[in-house]
Amino acid sequence: MRLGRSAASYQSRAVLVQYLFATPQFVLFLLLTIVPFFVALPVLFTDQANYTDPQIHHVGFANFTALFTDAGLQAEYLPALRRTVTFVAANYLMIYIFGLSLALLMYEIGFRGWFFTVVYLPLMASGFATGFMAVMLFSVSTGTANLLFLKLGLIQKAIDIKSGTGTSIILPILVGWRWAGFNMAIFLSGLLSIPRETIDAAVVDGASYWQRLIRVYFPQMWPSFIMASTFCLIGSFGVFDELVAMGALYGGNEEAKLLSVFFFNAAFRSDRLALGMTMALETFLPLVLVGVFMQRLQRRLQY
């Protein structure tokens, strides 16, 4: 009985410690995300132009219907939506090219703290900084990457990162490389949760590495796949800093004008703050529903 009480007391303290570690993050999320969201809700029903607008009028649901009735907004929104969806698909591929491959490498050779640190370092830099690094590497005349690829004969002409083709190719690679460590951690947690007995049994049965991947590893990694997909979907729609570095705001790079840039321009550069916030919310809500569905699916597969 005494041992049972000691175990229960230890478990209670462990749970309490976990909640204490999570509390600062929860408080910051509450103060910086949830509270501002509800404070800003009344703005959606006004014609507020900016934060210093002296005359604000109630317009009802006009901001919510503008995206469906205003041809001018649609002419900007639909191309931005197309570019964003294309980027999401390419970025989704990058999480497997970078994250999954690195996780498999670390899992097979053994965990290396220094390797994990090196892969995770790009996430420590801001998206703005990494975006400008890419711009310098692919400068048409002096970019190191361009000069190297030309020297090796891999390309016939320098890649212009601020062109449509250059942005559509380099942007997903840049974002995938920056988030490689984060995605690697998700996939590595899924790999480490696989019972070693099932892998050893597959080896004894003579299964090749590719057969073990398809029939042993991946079926038991579905929760990790869904979690990585959720983060990729939501994170891809929130990419902004890299786009600014690539000339989305002032460089005239149309291919870099994804939905995040469109909302920023509408809210802050065109003095349509309430309208920009409303359009962002209309795009955000479907993502929330998809995220909730994928989270429930992830929990069902995990438990």
Descriptive overview:
By secondary structure, the protein is mainly alpha-helical. It has a single domain, classed as MetI-like (MetI-like fold, Orthogonal Bundle). The chain has helices at residues 2-40, 62-69, 71-109, 113-124, 127-137, 144-152, 164-178, 180-192, 196-204, 209-217, 222-237, 241-245, 259-269, 273-302. Helix 2 (62-69) packs across helix 3 (71-109) and helix 3 crosses helix 7.
Percent of residues in helices: over 70%
Q: Strand tally, please?
A: 0
User: What is the CATH topology assignment?
Assistant: MetI-like fold
H and E order? HHHHHHHHHHHHHH
| Shape estimate | globular
So, CATH architecture? Orthogonal Bundle
Give the overall pLDDT as a whole number: 87
**Rg over alpha carbons:** 24 Å
CA distance, first residue to last residue: 30 Å
| Count of separate DSSP helical elements | 14
Largest sheet: none
Measured by DSSP, the beta-strand proportion falls in: under 5%
- CATH top level is Mainly Alpha
Summed up, the domain count is: 1
Oligomer: single chain
Class of secondary structure makeup: mainly alpha
Topology:
Blueprint: H1 2-40, H2 62-69, H3 71-109, H4 113-124, H5 127-137, H6 144-152, H7 164-178, H8 180-192, H9 196-204, H10 209-217, H11 222-237, H12 241-245, H13 259-269, H14 273-302
Helix pairs in contact: 2-3, 2-14, 3-7, 3-8, 3-11, 5-7, 8-11, 11-14, 13-14
Q: Characteristics of this structure?
A:
303 residues, mainly alpha, MetI-like fold, 0% strand, globular
